[in-house]
């Protein structure tokens, strides 16, 4: 679909959503980013899976990359509070070990891969550079990240802990990392905002998801386009 076709389809669908929702979309889009993205490896607990989506939405992170090796990603809708409707979920589940494919795809998009795990070469959140697009990788609460995810990462970050328990809950850890880094990002000179083309794509997708049976309206649009161009 060309940019002009996307704009025309958006104009066609826009009357079917309220002005308040349109304004909310435009307001939220200003804070959306792909500078940071989140990668979840084998997260299977529905509560944690859903809480991470909710935190990503609230901190403005648009894309979530989901690696399904042994476990299927199955968020709980009640916990997610509908946040998955406004995010891009990219799944990797074609092989027995999908972590290498996910890393390769992310690097092709220009991401530096940072594993969130204690490591001899790790840094704290305050020390982590944000001058490059970064994919933040999280593992399960029980076993953490796989050896593949750790050994093939470009760097490591840890959250300081001062209590008796061994680690933060995965959903809490993800929320802390996302909030801290996106706040740091928005106070920086880094060009973290979405491009005009990315905003158009997301706005069109959000509009579709806001309209019941939007596929029916989209078919009407293309039929009209065909009729219009056929008569020219």
What does this structure look like?
- This protein folds into two domains: 32-186, Alpha/beta knot; 196-230.
- Strand 2, helix 4 and strand 3 form a beta-alpha-beta unit.
- A seven-stranded parallel sheet has the order 3-2-1-6-4-7-5, with helices on both faces.
- The chain has helices at 3-13, 19-29, 46-59, 77-80, 99-108, 147-151, 170-186, 196-210, 214-230, and strands at residues 36-41, 63-67, 88-92, 112-116, 123-124, 134-138, 155-158.
- Helices cover 45% and strands 14% of the residues.
- It is an alpha/beta fold and 232 residues long.
- The longest helix is centred in the last third of the chain and has 17 residues, at 170-186.
Mean pLDDT: 90
Backbone CA Rg: 20 Å
> What are the low-pLDDT stretches, counting only 5+ consecutive residues below 50?
none
Q: Name the helicity range.
A: 40-55%
Number of domains: 2
Largest sheet: 7 strands, parallel
Shape by Cα distribution: elongated
**Could you give the distance between the termini?**
20 Å
Going by CATH, the homologous superfamily of the largest domain would be SPOUT methyltransferase, trefoil knot domain
Q: Determine and state the CATH class of the largest domain.
A: Alpha Beta
What oligomeric state do these chains adopt?
single chain
